Amino acid sequence: MTTDTVNIAGKLIGTGYKPFIIAEMSGNHNQSLERALQIVEEAAKAGVDALKLQTYTADTMTLDINEGEFFINNPDSLWKGQSYYELYKEAYTPWEWHEPIFNKCRELGLIVFSSPFDKTAVDFLEELDVPCYKIASFENTDIPLVEKVASTGKPLIISTGMATVAELDETVRAARNAGCKDIILLKCTSTYPSTPDNSNLLTIPHMRELFNCEVGLSDHTMGIGVGVASVVLGATVIEKHFTLSRAEGGTDAAFSMEPDEIKALVIETERAWQSLGQISYGPTSAEIPSLKDRRSLYVAEDILAGQELTKENIRAIRPGHGLKPKHLKSILGKTAKQDIKKGTPLSWELL
Prior knowledge:
Number of domains: 2
Distance between the termini: 56 Å
Oligomer: single chain
Helix content: 25-40%
Strand content: 15-25%
Shape: elongated
Largest sheet: 8 strands, parallel
């Protein structure tokens, strides 16, 4: 089953085009607009296609309660010891920053969009004329939010972290029924960081077939290996968290890529995409000159007319101008029609 391409701000996304790479800023600006704009500049230098923000406030995400289920006490969490409210207050991107960040992205040729987390964020982003939207994994079952975003008619990228097939089916149906024609599903594992062994990339082609839409990867693993592998399985979009420096900290810095790393991701995913080609056997046009370097049958010692051909005076060697080695058995024991000099490629005319 094939899918049509998705057009986001003039950039075509599909298997016929190089992977669409998204740098996710998240809270890595560390509450500095100057740093946020530097992240935009470094993302553009690295060659990514798009930069993504998150649009929320602590109050639109949760309640200001510092105990019970509102407090993060998971010992494996990067954010243990904080309340959800404190975390989102630290990580959010001030709404008044959006316009200068959007302007900087557009100035540098980056597509810029965001993940809204409630209806007010969608209304705000519409005023900024975003070309598409992203639904985060933890919101992929928030059907009212999905319907609100889908009603804009703009392309919708949905991270699928934790979602069952039934939940994804409900989400995709809701988006399509609300008016969204272009959906991209991103395979995602909602652990931070995640590991290659729980990435389950074989889900990517299955999702493409199941939902008949473009598919990609929202990747929280370290390095570029998982992202490159996803391209081979049909991922056309790859999203990675991005920071200037992990050492400088930030809410998501520990599992974010640095400029040199995301540049490598851009280069290597494009190489992976280029390498897919088509089903092909036999020499490519570039390989044809190499055919002469195959093994073939050559005269290994001077042979006199009437002399018998043996394993000693006929050998399979490089280059490939003589008879193919498969004929060796059939020519052994035959006699030379004429004197043959050592180094002569063997041909039927000589026998």
